[in-house]
Amino acid sequence: MLTPDQARDRATDIVARAAAAGADAADAVFAADAALDVSIRLGKLEDVGRSESEELGLRVFVGRRSASVSSTDLSSAAMDALVERAVAMAREAPEDPWAGLAPQDRLLHGAPPQLDLDDGGEVSPEQLRDAARAAEDAARAVPGVTNSEGGGASMSRSVWALATSHGFAGAYAATGHGISASVVAGEGGGMQRDYAYSSARRRAHLESPEVIGRRAGEQAVARLNPGRLASGPMTVVYDPRVGGSLVGHLIGAISGSSITRKTSFLLEALGTQVFAPGVTIRDDPHRPHGLRSRPFDGEGLPVSPTAIIEAGMLESWLLDSASARQLGLSPTGHAARGVGGNPGVSTSNVFMEAGRVPPATLVEDIVSGVYVTELMGGGANGVTGDYSRGAAGFRIENGVITEPVAEFTIAGNVRDMFLALTPANDLEFRYGVNVPTLRVEGMTVASG
């Protein structure tokens, strides 16, 4: 695999070729990755997989016309052909008044921040096999576990580079490590499945396979013999494993494309109270070894920690350069790029700040409610905010989380849910989007 410096040089080279071929402006992305994963099932090796890829994408502008092309053939002749094809396509494309590179005066200059994303280590298939087996063994050792969907362990390393014709060139490498287990508890028609996993940039930061496996097994057993809920209005408490999906609905609603197309249920909400005053949501691209940390965005702009929601107030849209131009605003450093196509919008390490009370206090006054640990299907309507999800979890009775329940639907409107949301104080950083336990008042539960 190329080093970050070599990847940056590849991207810079094809941008120079595009300018020489008649493009008024251009940017290029180089992406390479290598991954190794091992799976174990019922104590036996089930699969070993390895993948490697390298791809380069080029976007060129001729006036306000643009075109994007990509190739996995990185030979010099292929690069020349790629450039020629891209410029010819751009000359025939329709004009887009908002198209163009990011503002030159906003580009990141100097050394990008060091975020400790690459541990530089190599992991052997044998080490992954042993970790996967240990996770599955720990899960199968939990009393009540009757079968296994397997244990897994993986390691990957990627290099990403971006270069533009107006002065930006940067690259970085990142590693990713993971361990998982998925098992079944019970027999026949009463079987229940659950899983657990840990992901980290550095292998040393993974949870132990034994902890992961035991958690998967205990969660599966806890779901056995689920009951049914009565239908009606109810307080819903979201486990942190699924609560991040509510923040996902927020991110979709405040992304540039949703605002410019006027397809957001938060279209007129900037600067207004969207959540309860006790809720703050931040995006931190500089979090050391964060799962979604990055030193610059997909257009070469610097990134910085951002308050998306501050004390319940919506503080910012999430804008790439094209949507910012259309709205008469400045880009926010949230552009994201794949190898092909135009930039979109993406957040980094989004989290809701911890509240003031522990989870037990959050539920202690709930006479009848439900603690949700799994969500299925559905989602939120991006235009209206109407929300409906299939769910499973545990009944809350007189302030205590009791028996498992399944086959019910929770519904509401996301705008109302945001205002009725209270976070607990148990925030942990496990995922790309992290939230504490969340309580939402006044939802509708319908039993299946």
UniProtKB/TrEMBL annotation:
Q: Which is a Pfam family this sequence falls into?
A: PmbA_TldD_3rd
Gene Ontology biological process terms from the UniProt entry? proteolysis
**Domain Metalloprotease TldD/E C-terminal intervals:** 231-446
User: Signal peptide span per the entry?
Assistant: none
Region (Disordered) residue ranges read 98-153
* MF terms (GO), sorted A to Z: metallopeptidase activity
Please state every residue range assigned to the domain named Metalloprotease TldD/E central. Answer: 120-224
Q: Name one GO cellular component term.
A: cytosol
Q: Where is the composition biased (Basic and acidic residues)?
A: 127-139
Domain Metalloprotease TldD/E N-terminal, first and last residues per copy: 36-90
List where the protein spans the membrane: none
Task: State the similarity comment.
Answer: Belongs to the peptidase U62 family.
Protein name per Swiss-Prot or TrEMBL: TldD/PmbA family protein
Q: Which organism is it from?
A: Sphingomonas ginsenosidivorax
Classification from the root reads:
Bacteria, Pseudomonadati, Pseudomonadota, Alphaproteobacteria, Sphingomonadales
